[in-house]
Amino acid sequence: MASNLYIGLVHHPVYGRKREVIATAVTNFDIHDISRCARTFGLGGFFIITPLESQVELVERIISHWSQGEGSVYNPTRKESLSLVRVSRSIDGADQEISRFHQKKAKRVATGASPHPDCIGYGGLRELFKDRETPFFLLFGTGWGLTQEVKDSSDYVLAPIEGKGYNHLSVRSAVAIILDRLLGDRISSSE
């Protein structure tokens, strides 16, 4: 399992349509679907990063419903996956929490749909993950993606998912694809 790997869904700072720095709204689908991915691949945790108090309250209310309320009885597996969700008001705050827990500085890995001059490939990052002592924090942007500042302050920038010309996946689709590429079974299942 990848208990030293964490993901962060960044709602600020991200770009808006006109490349202005904005804060995006949290979506219910992202919380549920990404937490299920995090649980499926055995991650250490899933941070939702937003400075907006109304969004923090929304996430906490959703988690509470499915972990303590009627939802916990209705769907116990959802309760299990949502147990990995944490809310942080900043990337640095989440990073500090991970680093404190592991007593070692987390390595940040930014993702994005655009190529980056110094990106690391999936095979290279899989190799780095063999270091089970180092925590890794994989950042995903909402809106129009992580700001250049976030990418510049990261230890690595992961190569984008290359499609067939169209390159605008939902963030929850990108999370699923990237986690499978990094942590999925690479042995053919047809054997």
Core attributes:
191 residues; alpha/beta; Alpha/beta knot; 6-stranded parallel beta sheet; two-stranded antiparallel ribbon; 8 helices; 8 strands; 16% strand
Description:
The protein is built from 8 helices and 8 strands. The chain is an alpha/beta fold and 191 residues long. It has one domain (5-183): SPOUT methyltransferase, trefoil knot domain (Alpha/beta knot, 3-Layer(aba) Sandwich), CATH 3.40.1280.10. The strands form 2 sheets. Strands 5-4-1-7-6-8 form a 6-stranded parallel beta sheet, with helices on both faces. A two-stranded antiparallel sheet has the order 2-3. The radius of gyration is 16 Å and the shape is globular.
Q: What's a quick, concise take on this entry?
A:
Helix content is 40%, strand content 16%.
Q: What is the overall shape?
A: globular
The total strand number stands at 8
Order of helices and strands: EEEHEHHHEHEHEHEH
CATH-level-4 superfamily name: SPOUT methyltransferase, trefoil knot domain
Secondary structure blueprint with pairings:
Layout: E1 5-10, E2 14-15, E3 21-22, H1 28-40, E4 45-49, H2 53-67, H3 70-74, H4 76-82, E5 85-88, H5 91-102, E6 107-110, H6 122-128, E7 136-141, H7 148-152, E8 156-157, H8 171-183
Parallel strand pairs: 1-4, 1-7, 4-5, 6-7, 6-8
Antiparallel strand pairs: 2-3
